[in-house]
Amino acid sequence: MTAPIIQVRDVVLRYGDFTALDRVSLDVFEGEVIVVCGPSGSGKSTLLRCLNGLETFQEGEVIVDGENVATCRNLPALRRRIGMVFQHFELYPHMTVLQNLTLAPIKAQGLPRAEAERLAMDYLTRVGIADQAGKYPGLLSGGQQQRAAIARALTLQPRLMLFDEPTSALDPEMIFEVLQVMKNLAVLGMTMVVVTHEMGFAQEVADRVVFMDRGAVIETAPSAEFFASPKTPRARAFLKRILRIG
Amino acid sequence: MQYNLTFSMLLTAPYLGWIADGVLTTLHLALLSWSVALLLGLAVGIARVSSNRALRLFGTFYVELFRNVPLLVQLFLWFYVVPEFLPSETARWWNRLDEVPYWTAVIGIAFYTSSRLAEQIRAALGAIPKGQFEAALSTGLTKLQMYRHVIIPYAGRIMIPAITSEFLTVFKNTALALTISVVEISATARKIEAWSFKGIEAYTVASATYMLTTLAVILVMTMLERRLAIPGLIRWGS
Ligand SMILES: Nc1ncnc2c1ncn2[C@@H]1O[C@H](COP(=O)(O)OP(=O)(O)OP(=O)(O)O)[C@@H](O)[C@H]1O
Ligand SMILES: [Mg+2]
């Protein structure tokens, strides 16, 4: 078996006295879809942000696509191989959708503008909003904005994608279109780490589910197993709560 | 006693030339000081929100130093005191410059204004959601590219009204330069009064210069603001 594309080993991250990540370990293999869930404040976003070096941790190590994130000399180059999608989209509001997509390919990757635009249009077509390319993000619906944000990450042709609650800020009728885009991505074999409370998506698409609580990974299990019979009481309680609400 | 308004006198030599020189001096003194202030203010404003503690401290010190001493006092300090402390080589070079008062005014006004701009820039940077910085970094932009292509253009649009009002302040503050013998339009008005006793006319011209320029700047900046407005930003930001 090949080495995992993401290796997280005993990572400890503290904010002052507060331990946000408490000896977290996780392996993700190429092509896998991992769903990370857990109560608010359990450290899901923090873990995700450690994977592309947006956060610095005090102990342990994170190796992504063969590079040690903590000691990486060229983080920008590594980050280009890791797409990230945010809860609040974070499209640049003063640029058109197309400019949002081509900025990093042109400035960071050094692609010629024409090629970057061709790539960008290609991905906008795939997420179904090619007709919005010339608009400013503020004029798009939430679902369209999030699809544009996914396309922005994809335009860098990353090796893996990180999603931090990509549908939490969306109205219910728009959640579907975003999840659909993510499912297609999974089918095409993209490695994905998804923080989400969409348990339907987890059941249908995830290979494994990681359950976190108070900064620690409490349980990691194949998706079917996790939903059929969570091993830990905390995961059981969490599932019960969230499935009743969701 | 009757005072005869005779503006036509101002159109004759040597007054016309003086006025032209004075207006031009005021304009380029303001523009140059403001441009330097904008660059300094940008650097200091970014330092103020930097993740580096030393840089943040430096930023705070800088702002408090230059913001809290009256500009007039700062001009005197730059003009009379600072040269005393320059190494003799530098002092000699400085004193041999053609326009020492002018350059002193540029330095004084620029530092003072930059501390005020730095605060505006810090506020604008603080108004940009943290996720924008992270999104830019996550796409592999360097910090410099992030500021250059994402953060500063965004902050700049938020800041147009503040930058405008700061420019207008600079523009009026240039009048203080006459205290260190820069012959801008206010000093010119004084000079004309001394020569011709036509004080009212001379000061009217000076006032008109300030007012017309101010109006022109406001007009241009309002147009710019409208052109650069971010579509849908209000809905986006909420
Ligand atoms: N910069 C920071 N300084 C101090 N504490 C922080 C900081 N960032 C996050 N935390 C804390 O770390 C903990 C984990 O935060 P994190 O955002 O990873 O949680 P999460 O699992 O993503 O929660 P949510 O579901 O609400 O997004 C929280 O208790 C949070 O308050
Ligand atoms: Mg979170």
Instruction: List the strand order in the largest sheet of chain A.
Output: 6-7-8-3-9-10
Q: What is the rounded distance between the termini of chain A?
A: 37 Å
Uncertain ranges of chain B: none
Radius of gyration of chain A: 18 Å
Total beta strands of chain B:
0
Shape of chain B: flat
Number of helices of chain B: 10
CATH superfamily heading of chain B: MetI-like
Ranges of chain A with pLDDT <50 over ≥5 residues?
Answer: none
Computed over alpha carbons, the radius of gyration of chain B is 22 Å
> How would you describe the oligomerization state of the chains in this entry?
heterodimer
CATH topological fold name of chain B: MetI-like fold
| Separate helix tally of chain A | 9
Which structural class matches the secondary elements of chain A? alpha/beta
* Number of beta strands of chain A: 10
- Relative helix content of chain B: over 70%
**How would you characterize the largest beta sheet of chain B?**
none
Name the biggest interface.
A-B, 34 and 27 residues
Would you give an account of this structure?
The complex is a heterodimer of chains A (246) and B (238). Chain A is of the alpha/beta class and 246 residues long. In chain A, 38% of the residues lie in helices and 25% in strands. Chain A contains 9 helices and 10 strands. Chain A has helices at residues 44-51, 75-79, 97-107, 113-126, 142-154, 172-187, 199-205, 223-228, 233-245, and strands at 6-15, 18-28, 33-37, 59-64, 67-68, 82-85, 160-164, 191-195, 208-213, 216-222. Chain A has a 6-stranded mixed beta sheet with strand order 6-7-8-3-9-10, sandwiched between helices. Chain A has a 4-stranded antiparallel beta sheet with strand order 2-1-4-5, covered by helices on one side. In chain A, α3 (97-107) runs parallel beside α5, α4 crosses α5 and α5 runs parallel beside α6. By secondary structure, chain B is mostly helical. Chain B has one domain (16-228): Orthogonal Bundle (MetI-like fold). Helices cover 79% and strands 0% of the residues of chain B. Chain B is built from 10 helices and no strands. The radius of gyration of chain B is 22 Å and the shape is flat. Chain B starts with 14 loop residues before the first helix and ends with a helix. The model of chain B has no long low-confidence stretch (mean pLDDT 89). The chains are: A alpha/beta (246), B mainly alpha (238). Chain A binds chain B through residues 49, 52, 54, 76-80, 82-84, 86-88, 90-94, 103-104, 107-109, 135-140, 149, 152-153, 156, and chain B through 129, 131-132, 134-142, 145, 149-150, 153-154, 157, 228, 230-237. Bound molecules: adenosine-5'-triphosphate (ATP) and magnesium ion.
